[in-house]
Amino acid sequence: MTACAPDARVMVSPRYMAGAGDRFADVLGPLIHLFGWRHEHDPATGNVTMDSPEGSVFIDFRPLHPLGHWVTVTHHEPYWEAVFSRQTPLEAVAAVTQALPHLLGDRRHSDRIPITEMPLDRLADLHGWAAGGNGILTSPDHYCRLEHTPGQEIGWQVEHVYFENAPLATFTQDTPEVIVRQFFAYLAAPALVERSFGDVPLSTRHEASARVAPVRPAGMDTALVQALDRLLGPPGRPGRRR
Question: Contact at 8 Å (CB) between 88 and 23?
């Protein structure tokens, strides 16, 4: 696409090509303001630590982690851990963190925080991902995949070819599948997400199968935009004009 100013707002699809974005408040804010989770912030490092009211779930946000392990969610008894890299779309991370109170039995605000009940294979089919052998789901453009390895320490891993040394997400084997479903549902959804152009990975800006377009002009009818999206189809699939 034509280059934009770094602070210009653009819409990006598919989501796994969009980078993290800047909506980090959606990841931690609801836990603090709606559910009363305890939190501490270190201004010197930017680190934020959180724990659930009953002390069974902990969240670490470390923006300067040397390996890019940006967000870690840890549960005790049973132990499981989910780790998200700094290239992971924050919409998918927020889908996980916002589901944690429900998982712990806190049903407040359940009408505002949808929980995905659709199995992974059906979610994959819905969004055009291919189910291969050995528990692998692959995106339509073949750039992203989710691999399920039962019995291994890492039970699920989400990889992107442009970030080979840093998986978008890993989930240890005892992670409840609802957590993986939440993440995958929001990662694989073809709906456009908003980013600052400067935050969109360089690989995405030059990739033909990705869609990067300026935010629609003010006043354009939402129904019209959705109709155009349906007409054009998801990136890289039949029906989309180039």
Answer: no
Radius of gyration of the chain (CA): 18
Edge-first strand listing for the sheet containing 211-214: 193-196, 9-13, 211-214
Give the integer Cα–Cα distance in Å for 229 and 79. 42
Give 104-108 contacts, CB < 8 A, sequence gap 24+: 104/52, 104/54, 104/56, 104/57, 106/35, 108/34, 108/35
Quick one: which H or E segment has residue 226? helix 222-232
What is the tens place of the pLDDT at every residue in 169-189? 999 999 999 999 999 999 999
Contact 129, 191 (CB under 8 A): no
Percent helix, strand and coil across the chain, each to the nearest 5 = 25, 25, 50
pTM value > 0.90 = no
CA distance 44 to 21: 22
CA distances from 37 to 59, 94, 221 (A): 10, 15, 39
Indicate the length of the chain as a whole number.
242
